[in-house]
Amino acid sequence: MTLIRELDLRVLNRTTLERQLLLNRADLSAAQAVERLVAVQGQEIDAPYLGLWTRLASFTQDDLASLLHGKHVVRGSLLRGTQHLTLADDYVWIRPLMQVILSRTRQAAFGRLMRGVDVEELATLARGHLAGRTLTRPQLRDLLRERWPETDGTALGFSAQALLPIVHTPPNGIWGKGGPTPFTLAEEWLGRPLEAAPPVERLVARYLAAYGPASVMDVQAWSGLTRLRPVIEAMPGLRRYHDISGRVLFDLADAPLAPADVPAPVRFLPWFDNLIVAFADRGRMMTAEQRKAVCVGAAVYPTFLVGGTVGGMWDLKDGVLNVEPFAPLSDEVMGEVAAEGARLMAFAGVAGEGEVVWSAPRSAVALS
Fold it and tell me: Which domain holds residue 306?
């Protein structure tokens, strides 16, 4: 690999937006878009639908729902141990790579509460309870407590989810559907086994195709995996850049960079959108102060993009779209935000034209 050149924030921004299908809505199917993004963040049930709508030229809620019902897309614990939707073909090799994260997270959260419980026995017993059927977490928890009646039920239920490849079956993951989370064994739902030893390089390459150029720390922040530097540095054929701070950025050799001057339209992003959570250094998308407002604890709030970067946050409730800019917007940009917001409300099924309510820009509030 040869050090080629420095990339400024504008080139990084536009290249990332292009790979994320956010410069122009793509003429791709929902399945192709999910594959392109590797896995779509699904902590909030409706978020994947909004994330695909903002990226695709033609997309309806039924497009994704049919993929979930047809077992072409599955929902389960994947990147960083959090809920994601991914193609079934990708789940079978990504999920084994995530086991180390899920085991580590389980131990940190519930290790103290699980003293005296043999985790291998727990996994075997939970697999037996789930064989041939679907259970909700409370149902599985209660069955496990028959063996360990003195152990915290929440710890037992979440431990089983971490130890076994479990997917959440419809109606979970369907637009507007809540209620108890159904568990079933991934191998049975998909009708095939998971891959035994998938190479982590495969995940790195897919990440770079969708999010690069990026640093080792970026790949680790997105995936939750650690100690990837020797893996990435040893991968043949990667191209090296560096950013304005001198950090080394890696990319696929044949992946093009976007021009710095390409226009970037207004786009609305949902809770936990892939674009926002995919980097350790999010400077290509927002300032450090904006990140403090958008990323609060484990939450990543819905945002909208103006000129390619985060322009503020939004919330849609009871047919009202609340828009909170981070700085004053021109009349022209406010018109673009309102127009895109109207399209968002139409997709979400808001009756009539809906209503856009503007909050005072945060910068203006800070100066008042």
Answer: 286-367
